[in-house]
């Protein structure tokens, strides 16, 4: 269990931070950027929860907890013969997202146009979270190109952005529907 008695440690004052394996890296390290964006996404989901009803709030709370697992996973580099069992994202967490995507999407109309990230306040916040999830995925993919990471992390982030997309569409379903993109609509205005 985590026990924080002091919030500041002064160990990062020179631009370095500690990883889960005890090693130190620059705060500009791609690993730190990836889990930092996951943290940003988690905070944004907290804002999404302000617009959520009980069912969506519960689902987003689960995702927030999963994102802490994911951040811990990214924070702890892959090790041979680790001295402790690192927390890793597992396939069942990805499978839950897939089941949720299918459940929510079953109630939505088929898309025949791209949609704008707009509509209700809940939808706009969920679309914003979706874009941050995509950035976290890109940063994690960049990390994976140079260092070994748990493959379930990338799968989770990829499914999460899809989940946030269908949740945004669902939020707009009860608020007048999706806001459709009209290609070239303002070119002749």
The DSSP helix count reads 5
Helical/strand content category:
mainly alpha
Residues in helices, as a percent range:
55-70%
Number of strands: 2
What's the number of structural domains? 1
Q: What is the third-level CATH name, the topology?
A: Hypothetical Protein Ta1238, Chain: A
What's the pLDDT, averaged over the residues? 92
List the helices and strands in order: EEHHHHH
Strand order of the largest sheet: 1-2
* Name of the CATH architecture: Up-down Bundle
Shape assignment: elongated
The CATH class, by name, is Mainly Alpha
Provide the CATH superfamily: Cobalamin adenosyltransferase-like
Estimated share of beta-strand residues: under 5%
| Uncertain residue ranges | none
Query: How can the largest sheet be summarized?
Result: 2 strands, antiparallel
Protein name: Corrinoid adenosyltransferase
Family: Belongs to the Cob(I)alamin adenosyltransferase family.
GO biological process, one term: cobalamin biosynthetic process
Pathway: Cofactor biosynthesis; adenosylcobalamin biosynthesis; adenosylcobalamin from cob(II)yrinate a,c-diamide: step 2/7
Question: Your description of this structure?
Answer:
It is built from 5 helices and 2 strands. β1 and β2 form a beta hairpin. It has a single domain, classed as Up-down Bundle (Hypothetical Protein Ta1238, Chain: A), CATH 1.20.1200.10. The radius of gyration is 19 Å and the shape is elongated. The protein is mainly α and 189 residues long. The model has no long low-confidence stretch (mean pLDDT 92).
């Amino acid at each position: 269990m985590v026990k924080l008695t002091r919030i500041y440690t002064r160990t990062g004052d020179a631009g370095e931070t500690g990883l889960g394996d005890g090693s130190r890296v620059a705060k500009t390290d791609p690993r730190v950027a990836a889990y930092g964006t996951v943290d940003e996404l988690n905070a944004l989901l907290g804002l999404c929860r302000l617009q959520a009803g009980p069912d969506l709030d519960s689902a987003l709370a689960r995702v927030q907890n999963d994102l802490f697992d994911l951040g811990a996973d990214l924070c702890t580099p892959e090790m041979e013969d680790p001295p402790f069992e690192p927390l890793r994202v597992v396939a069942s967490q990805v499978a839950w997202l897939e089941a949720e995507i299918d459940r929510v999407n079953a109630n939505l109309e088929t898309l025949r146009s791209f949609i704008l990230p707009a509509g209700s306040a809940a939808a706009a916040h969920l679309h914003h979270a979706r874009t941050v999830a995509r950035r976290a995925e890109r940063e994690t993919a960049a990390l994976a190109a140079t260092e070994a990471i748990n493959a379930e992390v990338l799968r989770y982030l990829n499914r999460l952005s899809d989940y946030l997309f269908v949740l945004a569409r669902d939020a707009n379903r009860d608020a007048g529907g999706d806001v459709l993109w009209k290609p070239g609509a303002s070119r002749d205005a």
